[in-house]
Structures are given as structure tokens and as C-alpha cells.
Specification:
The complex is a heterodimer. By secondary structure, chain A is mostly helical. Chain A is built from 14 helices and two strands. In chain A, about 40% of the residues are buried. By secondary structure, chain B is an all-alpha fold. The chains are: A mainly alpha, B mainly alpha.
Chain lengths: ~300, ~280
């Protein structure tokens, strides 16, 4: 109460400095806020508006209001539902494999020797190969006729595999390419995290006579849990945007076998010119992604507190 | 007793050797596809389409010379440089200021804003692509560098804010207090004291932003069609070219040109890059 009265009787110049102070606080946020409202908030709102309207292809702007029609269409479109399922399968395999391989590789990478720095630097390379280029390279390597991979497995008597033409193999191929591109990313983060673990704990475990399995499950993994959770969230945020690798390698085929949701919506909007339906689908994907992101962030924070 | 200890030591040394060599082999496996692409880019078609694959061949730059003029690759490369650096610089300035505000300045509603921006990292770009395309078209901005730069800010600014907020939180508070006692304004203190001290973080964020923008495909496909088209779109075009069939030489050559600058860049700044990655994952 005293504070309130002192504020109401503030000297004009003092109030001016307060205004200036408020202005100087907010001035830091202004550029980012203005740009993000223009390129993030506004487009999302506009997508929602389009998803409830008919979009005129003459003016490229929304015209009449149609309610939930596009949502009903989207949710009864088997190809769209299939693309969500395909994305789910991809995420379900790719993320755990990349986390496991990444942390395993990090262990190998951290072995102390004079070439360690070079090995680590070279691991950066797959990570900075543009995904669309990655898709292109692997399409050549996995080509059923001329690809190096089929020739190599042929040396061991394996039959030539149609990596991109068989529905199941095509999905494995997508996971394989994505894993090639992203495992080094997980590995480099994991390697840095492992090096920063306190060494006295491991010393204590060794003195107590723990074998490597006990050390791994009772000491290393619990200590690494926060970083595993954080890396998973970062990787999830990237993986839900899967688009380029599929476009360059399988184009969603054969049939709809690898048509991830982002590619399906892209084709629907920019090849089929069904902008309104595509917007409804985007909103559905946006909601699913946001909910799952919130769940993962929450779980990750909980794990960080627990360990 | 001593024999047991010695055999234990030998075991450990062998284990160490195995670990080193396994690491080297895994590393080579991961590098192989890139090496293969670079090799393919220097082959003639007769050396590309062979079984078993040709390993010894006369290198030629024919694919480069014949393809580069026809596909406008230099122009697309220049576009990619303009857009990647343009978007990164805008995002670093806006993102660093905002990240600092979230880390250090008490503002009502800033926490909510921070959560919103963090959550926005999960927004699928396709949800932004349709309205961006429609608006750019209606404003006559389609196929310009500026529209692509702005579109890239939609994912770069949240990323930079998120990364740098962690750096700023870790700085000692006394820094700004001293600066303000010396009569610096908040903005002055930020640019004269905080920015120079946080340069490692800012450089990491800049490197990552340039790489992310360099390889972006979806927005570039949607928002440009010729004048401002970037190099990933060119790669996608060759990969999806059904008329000329599998133009593997061209794909390898343009792929190599896309990858080489970033690889050199990444190797040059590897320490900052690795640090940025580690910080980014821990300080969310």
C-alpha cells in the first residue's frame, strides 16, 4: 500500500526515468518479437484461418468460411493418416537407434590417444552434409543395379537388394540415411558430456570392485541421464521436421511407404494446390508435435531434477 | 599375484587398443559416403556405371565444367551465401538481445515469452510454408532474397535465443552492475561488455545458423523459383530429374560443391562448433 501511494505521487522526472527504464528493458526483446510475430505467429494464425476457409486460386486468398470441413476431410484421408503412421514408425526406430549408436560411438571416440582430435573433427563431416545431398549420395550407393552397397554385400553371397523399391527396405533405408547423418551429432554431444563426468566417482566404483557392467548401469548411465534426455529432445525437434532426405532418396515411395507427413502436406499444397486442406493437415501436425514436445520437455526436466 | 595384476593390465591395454581402432573404423565408415560422392564427381559416366565399382580411374573435371554453366550453379551458390549470412546476422543480433533479456533482465511476461519461443522450435516448417507462400506472392515478394532471409529467421531466432540464453545466464552478475555504475546504459553495457565476453557463444551460434540456413530446403523450394533459388533446391532438382534419368555425375558434383565449403568451414572452427553443440544440449 505504501508502495502504491509512493508511486502515485512520483515526481514527474522520476516517472519519466521509470518509463525510460521500462523502454530500455523491452528494447532488448523488440527486434526478435517483431520479426517472430511477422514470420512465426502471423503465419500460424493465417494457416488456421485458411484451414477453416475455402481458398480461391484466382486471388490466392481465403474466401468463404467452411467450418471443420477440411479437418473432417483430412482425418478421413487414408493417405494423410498413413503419412502420420509412416512418420511415427520412422521416429520410433530412428531416434532410439541414433541415441544408442551415438553414445556408443562417443565411448569409442573418447579413447585417449594422439589421434583423438582428428577423429573427432572428422566426425563433424556427415553432420554438415546437407540432408538433401545425403539423400542423393545414398540413393547412388544403394542403387539396385550400380550401387556400391549391393556389390559389397554380393561379395558375401547376399542377393541384390532393392533398397529403394521394396516398401519395408525403403523405410529401413530412410532410417539408415538419417542415422548416418545424425549419429555423429549425438556422438559429439555425448563425447563432450562423458568427458565432463567427475572421474572420482569412477575411481570409487573401481575401488569398490565394480565390473564394467555395474559401472555402466549404476554410475555412467545415471550420471548421463540429463544429457541423454536433453539430446533426445534436440534430436526430436529436428526429426519431426523430416523432409529433405526422403525427398531426395525415395520421394515418399514406393507407393506411400516412406511418405512422411511433411512431404505429403508439401505435395498436397504445392503440387495438388489444395492449400486449404494442406493447412488443416498442418494444424493437425502442429498440434500433435506441440503436445509431444511439451511431454518430452516435461519428462526431460523431471529427469534432470531426479538425477 | 603379480602375474594376475600384469595380465589384468595387458587386458586393459588390449581393450584400449580395440577401443581406439573400433573408433577409427566407425569414423571411416561414416566418412565413406562423402568420399564416394567426391570420387564420383570426378568420374566420367563410363566409370560411374560399373560393377564392380571403379576405384582407379583417370580423374576429370568434365562433369563440373559441363554442368556448372548449364545449371546456373554459381548464381545459386551466391544466393545461398547471401541468404545464409543475411539470415544468420539478423538472427544473431535479434536473438542475442532477446536471449540476454530472458536471461538477465526482469520483465513481466518474459518467462511466458521464453516458453513460447522454446516451444516454437517444435513448429513444423510446413505449417509456415503455405501462408508464407501466399503472402509473399500477394505482396510481390516471391523469389527474392529478403523473403527467404525472413523465413529463415523463423527458426534461427528461436534457436539463437535458446543457445545464447544459456551463455548469458552463466555470466557473473557483477559485470553489468559495474558497467551501470560507470554510467553505461543497459544497451551500452550489453554491447560493450556482455557481447565481447560472450563472443565464443555468439560465434558458435553464428556458425550453426549459417550451416542450418545453408542446407535448408523446404522454404527455399516453396518461396523461390529461379532468381533467388539456393543450392539445395538445385540438388533436389537433379535428384528428382526424371527426364534426364539418373544424372549421378551432376548430383555428385553439385553435392560436392554444396558440402565442401561447409566441411572446410566446420573443420576450421571445430572447437567452437563442438562447444556450441555441447552447450546447446546442456543449457536448454
Amino acid at each position: 500500500m505504501a508502495r502504491l501511494s509512493s508511486q502515485t505521487t512520483t515526481h514527474p522526472s522520476r516517472r519519466r526515468t521509470q518509463t525510460i527504464d521500462l523502454f530500455s528493458r523491452w528494447s532488448f526483446l523488440t527486434p526478435a518479437t517483431v520479426i517472430l510475430v511477422a514470420v512465426l505467429a502471423y503465419p500460424i494464425i493465417y494457416t488456421v484461418v485458411i484451414s477453416f476457409s475455402e481458398l480461391s486460386l484466382a486471388t490466392f486468398s481465403p474466401s468463404s468460411w467452411v467450418g471443420f470441413d477440411h479437418y473432417v476431410d483430412a482425418l478421413s484421408n487414408p493417405n494423410f493418416l498413413n503419412s502420420i503412421l509412416v512418420t511415427g514408425i520412422y521416429l520410433l526406430f530412428a531416434l532410439p537407434i541414433q541415441m544408442l549408436l551415438g553414445f556408443g560411438t562417443a565411448f569409442l571416440m573418447n579413447a585417449e590417444w594422439k589421434g583423438r582430435g582428428v577423429v573427432r573433427a572428422l566426425f563433424l563431416i556427415p553432420m554438415v552434409v546437407a540432408p538433401v545431398v545425403a539423400g542423393g549420395i545414398w540413393r547412388q550407393l544403394l542403387d539396385p543395379l550400380w550401387g556400391a552397397v549391393n556389390w559389397f554385400i554380393g561379395l558375401f553371397g547376399a542377393p541384390a537388394l532393392d533398397w529403394l523399391g521394396d516398401p519395408t527396405l525403403a523405410m529401413i533405408t530412410i532410417v539408415l540415411i538419417d542415422t548416418w547423418r545424425w549419429t555423429p551429432f549425438v556422438a559429439l554431444i555425448a563425447a563432450a558430456a562423458m568427458l565432463s563426468l567427475p572421474s572420482d566417482v569412477f575411481e570409487a566404483a573401481r575401488i569398490d570392485g565394480a565390473n564394467w557392467w555395474q559401472t555402466l548401469t549404476k554410475v555412467t548411465i545415471p550420471l548421463l541421464t540429463p544429457i541423454i534426455a536433453a539430446t533426445f529432445v534436440v534430436r526430436w525437434l529436428g526429426a519431426v521436421k523430416m523432409f529433405d532426405i526422403v525427398l531426395a532418396s525415395t520421394k515418399g515411395g514406393p507407393g506411400q511407404a516412406t511418405n512422411v507427413v511433411n512431404l505429403y502436406i508439401y505435395e498436397e499444397a504445392f503440387r495438388g494446390l489444395h492449400f486449404a486442406e494442406a493447412s488443416a493437415m498442418s494444424v493437425i501436425v502442429l498440434i500433435i508435435t506441440m503436445v509431444l514436445t511439451a511431454v518430452f520437455l516435461r519428462a526431460s526436466n523431471k529427469l534432470e531434477e531426479k538425477f | 599375484m603379480s602375474i594376475a595384476v600384469r595380465s589384468h593390465r595387458t587386458q586393459r591395454r588390449v581393450g584400449h587398443q580395440v577401443r581406439i581402432w573400433a573408433g577409427v573404423i566407425v569414423c571411416l565408415l561414416f566418412l565413406f559416403p562423402v568420399l564416394w560422392m567426391v570420387m564420383t564427381s570426378f568420374k566420367l559416366p563410363k566409370d560411374i556405371f560399373t560393377v564392380p565399382p571403379t576405384i582407379f580411374f583417370t580423374p576429370t573435371i568434365e562433369t563440373y565444367t559441363s554442368y556448372l554453366q548449364y545449371a546456373d550453379v554459381p548464381q545459386r551458390m551466391l544466393n545461398t551465401v547471401i541468404v545464409a549470412f543475411g539470415a544468420s546476422i539478423v538472427s544473431i543480433v535479434a536473438g542475442a538481445m532477446a536471449g540476454y533479456a530472458l536471461a538477465r533482465i526482469r520483465i513481466k511476461g518474459a518467462a511466458t515469452l521464453g516458453v513460447l519461443i522454446l516451444a516454437s522450435r517444435g513448429v513444423p516448417p510446413i505449417a509456415l510454408a503455405v501462408p508464407m507462400f501466399l503472402v509473399a506472392r500477394n505482396l510481390g515478394l516471391a523469389d527474392t532474397h529478403i523473403v527467404l532471409i525472413l523465413a529463415y529467421c523463423s527458426f534461427l531466432i528461436p534457436y539463437v535465443m535458446w543457445l545464447l540464453r544459456g551463455f548469458f545466464v552463466a555470466l557473473p552478475k557483477e559485470l553489468e552492475e559495474a558497467a551501470q555504475l560507470d554510467g553505461c546504459s543497459r544497451m551500452g553495457a550489453f554491447f560493450r561488455i556482455i557481447v565481447p565476453i560472450s563472443l565464443p557463444g555468439i560465434v558458435s551460434a553464428l556458425i550453426f545458423s549459417v550451416i542450418l540456413a545453408w542446407e535448408e530446403l523446404l522454404f527455399a523450394l516453396v518461396l523461390t523459383n529461379n532468381f533467388a533459388t539456393t543450392i539445395p533446391v538445385a540438388v533436389a532438382g537433379i535428384a528428382g530429374d526424371t527426364v534426364n534419368g539418373a544424372n549421378w555425375g551432376a548430383l555428385a558434383a553439385v553435392g560436392t560443391l554444396t558440402v565442401i565449403p561447409v566441411v572446410l568451414f566446420a573443420l576450421l572452427v571445430q572447437k567452437w562448433l563442438i562447444r556450441g553443440m555441447a552447450e546447446g544440449a546442456t543449457k536448454g
